[in-house]
């Protein structure tokens, strides 16, 4: 029976494992933690630690027909994966699904649930008490997090330090204006063209040094940017930690190896892109094992180049950038015949948004997205059982 090993017990790994499980295959999923934390909820969980358990499956129940192994992959050869606990996993096909590296917003490799819940609780409590909070990063996670911090701590001085000349530089002018206005309303100061030299988060008073040599005092310092992808351990990855792949999502230099969510074809880490990548890899792994020719990967979300949704606080403000779904949703009423058709026909996949045929944005959208984030987390929880609540205390 051919052996398939999937490394990474996150959304990419589990989605791929589900589709590969079969009677004639021996599928093993390697997760560095015995629990699964829903990454999308990270900003909210860090500011609302008492709700962390809602976004966590305490124990991963692997898809039917899949063996679950808890351990961290540290190296690999052409035929085997070696884990930190010295376990050796032989493979005929290997799927790398080790995601993004974003400290604090994702559990550390091998971090126990007790350590993780303690860490999130301490950070959340410190953020609520802090007089000064410095957040490093000008991307979507940093902006969402700054809004969440403001919601739980209305009086703190919150500073966002961006290395570029603005936060979310990919936005069009309309959304740049909205973002700037919202950051001003929330009294979030933005320092541009600066980097904080520290890379570790801290929740005790600290003087931070910026790239310009200036200093900044912070009761809490939270770096909120990615440190690249997590496939470095394979020895196959490029400098950003991604696996270089061909059009079949197959590693160029190691044909038995495929990648989901962390390949050079993964332009950004996003759920829908992952679903399509997992589907290509599932079918190509099976074809590879049968010596058949492989399918070409097609990214059905090819027009999505930056996050479709952006929250600035869980119930303060958010937008759903429909230009990322279709060319311009404002044109859709004319195309679909609105208002003469009953119901929402725009297919924007936010049917419940209440802002039909316009850019949905505002506090309502923020709450809607937060709600759907947890609905999705509940789906994720079906993969496992809820964590022990007493460990949260
Ligand atoms: C605050 C925040 C908000 C987000 N919002 C959105 C959103 O609105 N929409 C959206 O689509 N996406 C969003 N994302 C991104 C989303 O979380 C990722 O797209 C998704 O989690 C990627 O799944 P993944 O399985 O590829 O990676 P991960 O979720 O990072 O999972 C990778 C897994 O691999 C494990 N692993 C890594 N290295 C090893 C190793 N050597 N051995 C064993 N295991 C290993 C890790 O422990 C982890 O469990 C957000 C992320 C954050 C942090």
UniProtKB/TrEMBL annotation:
Gene3D superfamilies: 3.50.50.100. The keyword Oxidoreductase applies. Pfam families: Pyr_redox_2. The keyword RNA-binding does not apply. Transmembrane segments: none annotated. Signal peptide: none annotated. It comes from the Eukaryota. One of its GO terms (molecular function) is flavin adenine dinucleotide binding. Keywords: FAD, Flavoprotein, Oxidoreductase. Residues 3-261 form the FAD/NAD(P)-binding domain. GO terms for cellular component: cytoplasm. Belongs to the FAD-dependent oxidoreductase family. This is FAD/NAD(P)-binding domain-containing protein. It comes from Oxyrrhis marina (Dinoflagellate).
């Amino acid at each position: 029976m051919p052996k398939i090993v999937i490394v990474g017990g996150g959304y990419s790994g589990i989605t791929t494992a589900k589709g590969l499980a079969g009677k004639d295959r021996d599928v093993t999923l390697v997760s560095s933690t015995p629990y699964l934390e829903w990454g999308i909820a990270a900003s909210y969980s860090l500011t609302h630690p008492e709700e962390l358990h809602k976004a966590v499956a305490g124990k991963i129940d692997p898809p039917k027909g899949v063996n679950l192994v808890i351990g961290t992959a540290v190296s690999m050869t052409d035929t085997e994966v070696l884990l930190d606990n010295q376990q050796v996993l032989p493979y005929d096909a290997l799927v790398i699904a080790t995601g993004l590296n974003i400290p604090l917003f994702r559990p550390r490799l091998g971090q126990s649930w007790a350590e993780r819940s303690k860490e999130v609780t301490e950070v959340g409590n410190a953020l609520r008490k802090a007089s000064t909070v410095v957040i490093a990063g000008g991307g979507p996670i940093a902006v969402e997090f700054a809004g969440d911090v403001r919601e739980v701590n209305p009086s703190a001085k919150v500073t966002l330090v961006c290395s570029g000349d603005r936060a979310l530089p990919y936005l069009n002018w309309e959304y740049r204006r909205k973002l700037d206005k919202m950051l001003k309303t929330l009294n979030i100061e933005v320092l541009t063209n600066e980097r904080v030299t520290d890379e570790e988060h801290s929740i005790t008073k600290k003087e931070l040094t910026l790239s310009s040599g200036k200093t900044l005092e912070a009761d809490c310092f939270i770096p909120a940017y990615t440190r690249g992808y997590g496939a470095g351990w394979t020895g196959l990855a490029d400098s950003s930690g991604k696996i270089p792949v061909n059009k079949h999502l197959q590693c160029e230099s190691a044909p038995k190896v495929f990648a989901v969510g962390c390949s050079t074809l993964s332009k950004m880490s996003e759920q829908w892109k992952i679903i399509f990548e997992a589907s290509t890899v599932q079918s190509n792994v099976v074809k590879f094992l049968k010596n058949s020719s492989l399918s070409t990967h097609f990214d059905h979300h090819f027009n999505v180049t930056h996050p479709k949704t952006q929250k600035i606080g869980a119930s303060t403000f958010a937008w759903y950038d429909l230009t990322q779904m279709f060319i311009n949703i404002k044109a859709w009423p004319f195309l679909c015949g609105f208002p003469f058709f009953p119901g929402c026909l725009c297919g924007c996949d936010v049917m419940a948004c209440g802002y039909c045929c316009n850019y949905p944005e505002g506090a309502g959208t923020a709450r809607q997205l937060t709600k759907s984030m947890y609905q999705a987390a509940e789906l994720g929880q079906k993969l496992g059982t809820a964590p022990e609540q007493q460990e949260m205390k």
